[in-house]
Structure formats: structure tokens, C-alpha cells
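Notes continue from the previous slide.

Worked example: a multi-chain complex. Inputs as given:
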Amino acid sequence: METQFEAVIGLEIHVQLQTKSKAFSADSTEYGALPNTQVSPISLGHPGTLPRHNQAAIDNAIKMGLALNCDIRRVNRYARKNYFYADLPKGYQITQFDTPLCNNGAVKIKLGDGTTKDIRLTRIHMEEDTGKSMHDQDLNDTLVDYNRAGTALIEVVTEPDIKTGDEAYAFVTEIRRLVRYLDICDGNMEEGSLRCDANISVMPVGSTTFGTKVEVKNMNSISNVKRAIDFEIKRQTELINAGGTVDGETRGFNGLNGSTFSMRKKEAVNDYRYFPEPDLPPTIVTEDYLAQVRATMPELPSTLYARFTEQYGLSDYDASVLVDDKQSALYFEEVVKHAPKYKQVSNWIAGPIRGYLNENALGMEDFCLSPGQIAGIIELIESNKISHTAASQQLFPALTQNPTSTPEELVASLGLANITDSSFIDGLVQEVLANFPDKVAEYRAGKLGLLGLFVGEVMKRSQGKADPKTANALVKAALEQA
Amino acid sequence: MKITEKRVQELAHLSRLQFEGESLKKMQNDLEDILAMCEKLKEVDTTGVEPLIYLTDAETVLREDVVIQTITHEEALRNAPKADSDFFRVPKVIDGNG
């Protein structure tokens, strides 16, 4: 019989911090510049240069640590991680070795069955990015661009608490959401501002001894992280069941067929010869400094969720959908300032607005209508000036085409206002009753559920513009006038 | 402490240096001498003494997050042993690292 295996997974996530200048020099970090235009003698590793630490990088790193309830270290030392590679001009990377900025802390993830699980963090440390090598542009040479060299990074390292690809998916999604809320990284995995490596091993179910671990790199989307892990668990399990052994190695991920492939064996493991970076005295995080950073922390999704459900009375589902994306949550807050109709505003954001954005491949931050305009639409519905159908199917699309108009102007120019004229509506009611004599008889015989059918017909004949309350009352009155 | 020839070669590889024959022997002796000196230093009783990592008790001075471009693209490439108008060029590396 085949042995049942369970996986043990730890993740390492590199987060490129959204600072204007690099970690240890003043050259720009702007993405997409021409190669080797954002460099300096410091980032190019020229002799005699000295690093100077960017305060914004530390601020951002501390924010992440606070958001994840980590212990923040007060005396931070840097170390040199030594290795030779063309994209590392100094021959060493400045990183933190035995004194990471953050220890402990955890990320709460939501599992498919609705339960939550804490993924514990080992550490978060500060370091610098490398340049970029291009191996496939030229036959003989590797081309190197140092624009990225020296960009501030944090590396988030988890304990081996993750068991499945789905849990890893939830974890990276949560990290991405947090860095976006904190405004410390754009979280773009395709452009590499958020990068994830996974350490994966398998062991017989119930065992306490971990198997040999394999490190998988190059997963440039969150779904690829899940795919790579699922593939690797299956590969290792089948290998062991077939009598083989897992090699400790680094593997890459092929997004086209969802498989991993061997990149290099770990036997040639590098000796990085870490030693304290003599060019940087320790960075001290005082209580005052910590309090300052804490004061600039935005509200986090968990806080917003609590407020949306407790204060605004939104359902678990509605609140989760809103806080999923920072811009939607902020937009919601702006709309309810104008129109405190929490449930309606939430429905508009999750419904017509999300639909419009998806159709046009836009993000919430690109949405052309102001919170005031959406509040205006909702007010028109609430005050019975326009039906919900006319608002969502006609007014809203028209407004997105004419974002400089007000909802009121368009209701007038497009003739969308509710008809409240009783004699006009009553005329429609009489038409409907005349058209359905059988149903009228059934209703009068006690089948009161048919009321909706008649009202629906009246609404249809008014092209959705009859004031539903008036229509309802008139239908009822007419039916009861036997 | 004995340093084997193999160990010298490993260290040489990490530093991208090459030793053979006489120079290998000399490096091996030098490393042994250095380690012997370290062994001697270890004889001092350091119980209760904090490790000395920095020679001063200075704290780092932080820099404001402001972009200053100090050199041009052309200046950046000027000292490169090999470059084209855009990129630094290095011998093709197949095996990844870091």
C-alpha cells in the first residue's frame, strides 16, 4: 500500500518597498526607466563609497512588522552576504543576518471552509535588491541592468506552518493585501515587486521528522505559487512511493505546463560568509520613533471589517468583499459620508460599479465617478424619484459616459424620473386587469400571491418608471373593488 | 589547525582566486598561521565581555527619501570592462546564484 504523505511548506516573500530612492543611495527606484540610468557610484559598488540608510525604507519595514504583530528590534545591525554574481556589483548584499528587524508575529488566513489559521512568522528583515541579468538577449554576453540594484526590500519568512497550495495562496494574497493597505509596495508579482519562493517537503502523515526540502522559485503570480506547490507535493510523493529519494535542490517553475524543473543542486551550497557590515553603524529604533511610525499607520483590513460589520451592520460577506480591496473600502467610506445607506452603498459597489470596472478592465482607483455622484444616485432611489432598475440599467451607464454630469441632470435629460401621476398609473392598472381576467378571478378567490404579477405587469408597461409604491397601492385597490 | 589543500581550493573558489603549485602551498601556510594566531587569541578569558562589533559607538545617520541622480548613464558605463550603449556586458553565466 502507498504511504500517505503530508506536506510541510514555508514561504519566503520579498517585498520591494515603495520608496522614491534606494535603500542606501539616492538614485531613483522608478520602474521602467532606460537601463542603467538610475544608478550611482554607491549602487554600482565603486570603491570608496559609503552607504547611507533611507529612513522611508525603515519606516515601511516597521509598518509591516507592526501590522503583523511582530516584535520590533531596537538595535538593528546589518551584515554582508558575500557571493559573486554579475548582478551584485559590490560582491555582497547588505542584509540583516542575526538581528532581523522583526521576529515572531503571524498572518491570519481564511481557509475554504470559513475557518481561520495563523501562519507564524520567523522573521522579517531589511535588505537590498540586486540588478537584473538578461541571458537571452545576446549570443555571447549576459547583459546587466543595475537600475534595480540597491532598491529597498524586506524579506518575510514564515515558519513551516503551511500544508497545502491553497493555504499558500491565501497567505500570499493576505500579504499582498496588507502591503497595499500599508502603501509600502504595489504588490505586483508580474513586475516582480512582490516575489515568492517556497520551501516544500513531504513526510509520512503523522511524522515529526521533515523530509528533504526543495526550494521553488520564479512563480510570478499567486495562482502559480499554488500550482507549483501542488505539483511539487505530487512529484515528491510519487517519487518516494516509487522508491526514490528527494534531492535537496532549487527548482524553477514553468508556468506554461505547471511543472517544476531542476535548476541547481544544493550540494554546491554557497558559503555566504556573513559578517557585520562595517560601513553601517547600527540603526536604533527608539520608542519615540516607533510611536511616530505607529501614528502614520492606516486602518488595516481587520479593523475596517470590524467597523463595517459592527458599526454599519453589514453582513460578513458584504464587509469581506469591500475590505478585500483597499480602494473599494475607502470609496465605500466616502459614499456613506454623503449617503449613510450602508447596505445600499455596499450593494452598489459590489454590483454595478464592480461590474463596470471588470468590463473595462479598470481598478477602483480608475473609477470615473465621484463618491458624491454615487451617493446622488442612491438618494434619488431612496426618495422615490427613480426606480432601482432605471438607476442601475440606465442612469448609471449614462453617468459613466458623462462623468461631468450630475445624476439629477441625466434623470431629467433622459426622462428617467418615476411616474407618480396616479391617473396615468391607474390607466395601466386597468389595462393589466382587463388582460388577465382569469388571474383576477383567482386572486379574488384568495390567491393573494398573484399581486406581484399584476404589479410587475404595470411596471413593465410603464417601462419601469411607475412609482412602485403607487403602483402597488393602485393594483391592490383595483383588485379589492370587486 | 590543519588546512587541507582542498579547503584552500574551496576558499579560493568562493573568492574567485586561483592558486596552484608554490602559491597554493604559500596560501595554505599563511592560512594556517592566521588560524594559529586566532587560536592564541582564544586563550584569553572573555567571560562576561560583550562582543565588540563596531569600533565606535556611533549610531547610523538616516537619509531622507529624496532622489538625487549624481552621475549620467554614460558615466555609469565608462569604467565597465565591457559595455554597449545601454548595458554592462559580462561573460555568459549559466548557473544562477542568490
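Summary box: The longest helix of chain A spans residues 222-241. The radius of gyration of chain A is 30 Å.
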